[in-house]
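Box S2. Input/output pair 1.
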Amino acid sequence: MDLATILGLATAIATISGAYALEGGSLDSVFLTAPIMIVVGGTLGATMITTSFRTVLHVPKFLRLVFFGRSYSPQQTINQLVSLSERARREGVLGLETMLPRLPDSFFRKAIQLVIDGTEATALRGILETEIVYIEERHKKGITFFQKAGGFSPTMGIIGTVLGLINTLSNTTDASRMAGAIASAFIATLWGVGLANLFLLPVADKLKMRHEEELGHLELITEGVSAIQAGENPRNVRTRLLSFLAPQLRKGEY
């Protein structure tokens, strides 16, 4: 579970709710069915228009990635690639086959399998880069979905508020009741802005961060596997791969 996501969401909601309660507000007055329906349903519907139904079906997967996404350790990946390079230098590329089950993900295993199968260097890099491109496209669909939803949500809140005001002003003649009805109409705006800025847009940014981390991981593997296939010295492999790390992270790696 990603603690930063959980703690950030909890902190934002708790702070806003606590401040509202301190001012004497009642949280029950915020949870009105009609405004929530307009904002959530309208946002989902408008966002669905902009994308495919398959992308909508993958929304639970995107959310799972946000809250339970895997973290990548570049140092660990470099150590694995150097270890594979040492094995290949000692036993040849066929000696890497016994290490395939130990590799952490399917892309890594596929890359090493291509080396074992004797794939030509240009073809190897081309296959891996093509896969990276399509992984990137799939990730962008999720990021775009939540970015668009974050844009639609405040507008749906305004629509809900306008509808509430129209209903209030056309049906309420009692001035004392009208004030409360107008206040309730603005609940939709609150939900629209809150949903966008406390959930939808942060989720889009978290997916973007996950995407960048995974892309760096895949590019690191591609470069390392290409070096292994070329038969480079393991020390040179490590030196090349360390260029992917920030200078402060390279200390003690040589």
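Box S3. Input/output pair 2.
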Amino acid sequence: MKQILELQKQAAPHGLKLHLDGARIWNAHIATGIALNELANSFDTISVCFSKGLGAPVGSAIISTSERIEEARIWRKRYGGGMRQIGLLAAAAAYAVENNISRLGNDHKMAKEIAIACAQIDSSIINPDEVETNIVALNLAKFNISASELSQELKIEGILTGALGPKFLRLVTHLDISQADMDKVLTILPPLLKRSLVAK
């Protein structure tokens, strides 16, 4: 919050507006305990996502003044972003907000478990204390395997991950991951890492 307030302070004299890409604001709220309105207070516009952590099939919304929303609708149409007959999607988004925010803590817990298991192989790969939400970012610099190679090996085992750099692998936990899925990750990932560890 301190950085956000400083950003707002620096932007205001220049007449700059602040936008919050709030796709993961729900996770930040659960992880920090800070109220949603407090997290959003410093911004002029906010976008929120109902899929990802909340599990709706699709959908985002923008929050701002009525004037800015009207302008955003014009630009949405110009960019081809309009949709018709979206009542079912709106219902799914409403369900997600009403029922799935409270369960995000479970996603965070699973991510922490994965981080701890990986750190036990080598502390350079990740610091579990820094895993606060549902994203696990693995640093493979000391490992004799690239992120894409490890991602492919995990995919063969039915575990989907994202290679976001030559030595950077990302795992994201979410509501579709069962305890059986977690057991699989914790059984398969650490041995793969151990096998490819390069002593320096």
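Caption for Box S3: The chain has two domains: 2-99, 104-195. The mean pLDDT is 93.
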